[in-house]
Each structure stands twice: as C-alpha cells, then as structure tokens.
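hey m, so remember when u said the tokens were messed up on ur end? i reran from scratch. heres the input so u can diff it against urs
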Amino acid sequence: MNAPMKTGRLILMPNTLDFGVDDSLDLREVLPQRVIEQAARLTHWAAESAKTTRALLKRVDAIAPLVQPLQAMQIVELPRPPKGGRGGGDDAAAWLALLDPVQAGHDVGLISEAGLPAVADPGARLVALAHEAGIEVVALAGPSSLLLALAASGLNGQSFAFVGYLPVDAAPRAARIRELETLSAKAQQTQLLIETPYRNEALRQALLAALKPGTRLSISVGLTLPGGWTQTATVADWRSNGTKLPDRIPAVFSILA
C-alpha cells in the first residue's frame, strides 16, 4: 500500500520594507538568518508582487544559495482586487489554485511587497483558505512597519487599531479623521493609518487641518531604511514645524487624542 502523500505548509515569509530598491541594505539587518535560510529552500511562492519577490530572492541567494535557480521558481501573484477596490480579489478558484502545490507536498511561501504577509495585506484571504483546508500555517518573524511605528511613537501601545486607508476625497476624509479622533479620545486608543506614498503629504495636511491642536500625531517614514525616522508631537507643534513628507517612501501615521 502506498503511503499517503505528505501535505506541504503555507509559510508566511516576511519581506523588507524598502520594496527591494535599496541595494545598500544588508538583508541580515532586518531578517533573521533562519528566515533567510527558509526562503532559500522554497520553490513555490504566492506573492503580492512577483517583482519584489524576485528582488528579495536575489538578496537571499547572496547569503544562502537558492535551492534552485530563480528562473525555475514558481512565483504566482495573488488575484488582483476588483477595479477601484483595496482588498483581495473575488476569484475564488484562483485563490484556491494557489494552494495546489501545498496539496502536492510542497511548502508555499506567502509574501507581501513589504513587511509581514497577511497584515495590512490581501494575503490574509489565502491564510484563511489554508486553515479551512486543514493546511499548517507557519508565521516567521520579520519587520512590520505598523508595529515598529507604534513602538517608536510613544503613544498607547496597550490599545491600538489599524484602520488602513482613509477616503481620498477631502470631505469624507476629514469626516473620517474626526471620527477616529473621537474614538481615540473615548477609548484612549492609538489609531494607525497608511497611505500610498505619493499621497503622504496630502494626508499629513489633512490630518493637521482636521485634528484638534492637542491631539498627538506620530509619523514614521522609511522605517529600517537609512535615514528613516519617527517624530511625535502635538498637532499644534506639527503645524508650526514646516516638515514635508517624501512622496516615494512609505509612511505610517498614528494619532492619540
């Protein structure tokens, strides 16, 4: 009698926070050696971006040689969200197909463009499907811009919420900011939010216009990258300091009323 085929695992593989563009970054400064070695052993990937996944694997290969050439890797991108949407796509068959290699006995690495997969990331849907299918899910340690920003902010780390993106249009965005400020004051809860980098400065200005002068605002830019920084001050102080944000580097915004 043939033994049953061994099922693979879904490995949640952390990525750097530079989107693979900083050639000066030493991978070992942001990822544990165990994680780098695990990445080198994987041959199947479910990726938010194939481009940034290849960039990471090239860095990995310089430290721990890949088990097979990069060109031979199976890197499949996650289904795209519906046009105008921010979440995961609704093609159920395409999502399930990402787990086919696991059913065939291969470990599959789930990887985001930056940071931890499935955190502020559409990969969470694949993790949920893995659990439904009884597939083992293994999370590996790596950088999370949200938690790094929270830790560096000095705001309340005992109670916090990630609220994602705000509306783009000015009026609903301002209303949402005031809503979050009211919630923060009532619960003494830090509210964390992000934006597409080219809108960083627009969001900063919207926050300064809508928030009360005494509310504390923390902004983290380019975390783990050379020149990255975190600054926390009251809205009144932010209004007077003249800081402007870069439009190509990710930022995390945190408020506590």
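this time it looks ok to me. The radius of gyration is 20 Å. if urs says something different then somethings off w ur setup not the seq
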